[in-house]
Known about the structure:
two-stranded antiparallel ribbon; 20 helices
Amino acid sequence: xxxxxxxxxxxxxxxxxxCALFFIFGFVTWANGTLIPxxxxxxxxxxxxxxxxxFASYMAYFFLxxxxxxxxxxxxxxxxxxxxLVILGLGSLIFIPAAQTRTFGLFLTGIFVQGAxxxxxxxxxxxxxxxxxxxxxxxxxxxxxxICNKVAGMIVPLVMGSLFLKNASxxxxxxxxxxxxxxEQLLNDVLGRVNMPYIVLAIVFxxxxxxxxxxxxxxxxxxxxxxDESKGAVVTHTSIFQFxxxxxxxxxxxxxxxxxxxxxxxxxxxxxxLGISTEISGKLTSIxxxxxxxxxxxxxxxIPKYISQQKALRICAILGIVFTVLSFAISSWFAVIFxxxxxxxxxxxxxxxxxxxxxxxxxxxxxxxxxxxxxIAGGALMPLLYAFLNEKLQVHFQLAYLLTVxxxxxYILYFAxxxxxxxxxxx
Length: 427
């Protein structure tokens, strides 16, 4: 795949800016893991209701990924990033009136707007990382950016958890035992905890948008046609539907993100079910993300020098299957450790799945990337499926987790072995 980019530029390396963006992705996305128990505390929500936090965030990708591709085509890569950051700041500011009016629906609106901004930013940045160098080493570049993403995710539960869930057990008892004006004031004080953090975030996002606006970033273009490796000739494709591996890859992203959210955002709920306190369970996401960080480092060292990204994906899928089964088989609090270790299994999945899904697309790379980003909607549906099994069908929470997550890793294993080659090999 040929790349055309303006290398005569001044300013920071584009990879540095993309890594900074991935830090922002992680901070905003993994804040949902803290918001779930926070909203349960503030609004007295069930698990099913609280999981609409992740639903609002990840469904935005489904609706906005394709429009994002069109926007990027019109305004360009850099202006698309600037626009996405500004929208991200606006979504953060919606939290302020939501807290003042104590409206859960308005909070979900702000989260959806943030998700829309992230859809635009992800649609721009992921293909950029994938095609800025050899496709065989794309997983390494995405892993480097992923470290920034997961470092932010490790910081969020500690920072936001300390702010939002401070004295959570005591506050929960007070909310349940008080009525009238005292009860109302207590709820106002709790929800008011979001004001300052999200005002600061909005300011940071807008300042970074200004920085990007006045920074030179090369536009990346790909060849109109691609080389069919099996035939050794240039092949002209006329439709995105001529690439079945792309749609199998989008489905793989769908189940992967669902599994990642279950290991990251839902681990706090899982811990509570095992008897771990709210204060501690609200910070368990950091352990999951730390194990993902370890996996990213392993990927940077080993891919593609020692193992291919396809083999790395197979190994990670097998680890996901093993850790999921162990999290079900153990009934003590120790089971949550294997949920956290799923972060290690998940670590190299996005870095491997994304470049495999958009490989050989040629002129369809941008629209193909948008289709892949649509798969992030898996993070919206998997938690709801888990909550439905657990609360509505009365399935034990560990079995519900197994039934939700295990099929995800089985499909990822299929994609790693065969799915990524469908339609690319000669008959």
